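Hello again,

I reread your note about wanting to compare the complex against the isolated chains. To keep things tidy I'm splitting this into two emails, and this first one only covers the full assembly. Below are the input lines as submitted, including protein chains and any nucleic acid or small-molecule components. They are followed by the predicted structure of everything together. The single-chain runs will come separately.
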Amino acid sequence: MRIKWIVPLAALVILAACESTPEETASTTGEGATVQEAPAVVETAPVETDISAVDASGPIPGTQEDLVQNVGDRVFFSYDSAVLSPEARQTLERQVEWMKLFPSVVVTIEGHCDERGTREYNLALGERRASAVKNYMSALGISPGRLTTISYGKERPYALGHNEEGWQLNRRGVSVVN
Amino acid sequence: MTDTRFEVDERERGAGRVIGRLPKGCRRLPWRLGGALALLGALAVLVGVVQPARAELRIDITRGQVEPLPIAIADFYGTTPETTELGARLAAVIAGNLERSGLFRPIDSKAFIQKPEAMLVQPRFSDWRVINAQALVTGRVRLDAGGRLRVEFRLWDVFSEVHLLGLRLASIEDAWRRVGHKVSDAIYERLTGEKGYFDTRIVYISETGPANERVKRLALMDQDGENLRYLSGGQHLVLTPRFSPTAQEITYLSYERGQPRVYLRNIDTGQHEVLGDFPGMTFAPRFSPDGNNVIMTLARNGNSEIYEMDLRTRKIAQLTRNPAIDTAPSYSPDGKDVVFESDRGGSQQIYVMRREGGGARRITFGRGRYGTPVWSPRGDLIAFTKSNRGRFFIGVIRPDGTGERLLSEEFLVEGPTWAPNGRVLMFFRQGTRNPDSAELVTIDVTGHNERILFTATAASDPAWSPLIP
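Full-complex prediction:
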């Protein structure tokens, strides 16, 4: 009966990983992968060995990979804003639940900005974003001692494009397991 | 450092205007040649005889677009192959400086009629009038018995046949470029009435690698792009270096210990230390005009405030108290006021407050956002970065908020810094055509003479030094 979990779980994992670009990836990579994976799992092996194979290939619980794949490591902000959107709050709520599962995990929250601001203002804005993430998570019960913040301003873009698509992905708060 | 100190001897003849004196410690009499002094005496007599009535040769640099002054810079005369070569190089350094200023048009030396050695006493002015030179620079160079470089130069008004300026300089041979810069500064000052800015350096951030893994290093070079030296290795992210008033130290932001912190660094010894080691992040540092303080921003719990640190006691004083972002502070040259940026009014704008904090008043009210204010060394203007509708601008505004002028515009232009005479600005630019590669650009405060300053790598966050002591 455990097999039933595999397909939706795989889809969920992939969807979570693709959160940043929903239109493009969810419909192509996401569905395509689930279709391909389902028969492979059913055909190749008995239930027990198959489950252990999935576990071994997945990220180790409590690691950055686990956070990225199964929870979502980042939230996004509007231009010149450090306000958490409802979507961002949901992501952080999942992060909080996840951190409660792994009490020894300590996280650094990075605040980042797009390139459309001046350097020092962006350092301040990145700090404000990181603090907004930290404050929300600590309000939900994570000890502030487990959450440190750092601002990178516009120094570490994730997307390299000089356009709104790229800037949206770069205005972010990222949780990094220490 | 004592070895590279310059000895300057003023020999003012002719028009009788005294050029700006160098700091007292530098005024010595290194030139012990009695013969040369006798020559100068003879020269004074000659020049005294020829005094046609004519408007003084002078460039008005406040006027914006000026017709560059045609100037002939003869190779400095040397008697050995080595000093002949040095003399040609000195002339090239001077010509390069004056040309880049936009105020001078050095004449191609191929057009010169009279040879350097023929001008030891006095130029034949008719030879220079023929090629339309309005000013003429002549000089000689030698190495004394101790190997020290000895340079003497003269500036002439070709049409009035007047000797405008004469100077002797001495230095170690390796510092020959600085001699050229000092001569350039003296010519600039004599002809414009303003201090020069050629014997200065630029500290900036050298950038290599892709944007998401960019390597940033502290780099130092002469104002003309020569003598490049890296001050840090690139292991740690470094940003926003700024000079102390002695040009011997810089303060900057580094992630050396993981967290962003303000550092102080001696550019010769490489010794550096954390200045702002407080909980939270410190950034946006600048020296006070007297060098005794560093003003910086401390960010904690999402709130950025401006603090001043006394470098002797290391005590800090908080200057802003506001839930908004308050950052990018810069002192007025008299040290009485501080200009900074804040989003306390809802968007990033520029404010001026008293040095001890309080009395903040907003000075920018145009469309868009305003940041990175830097007070001119002259005190008359504040340079800034502005962004509006997807474009960035470098501009200037008076401290009372009037007279806003935009000088340059691009996909991104940011971070102006002033030449020490307050007549030229440098900033960095990421153009639409190549937004991944930042470059340094200079522009006159009049908005004319915009030029790229070529660097070995992409470059950002320039800071112009004061005139080197």
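For quick reference: The interface with chain B takes residues 80, 82, 115-121, 123-125, 127-128, 130-132, 135, 150-152, 155-158, 160, 162 of chain A (CB under 8 Å).

B.
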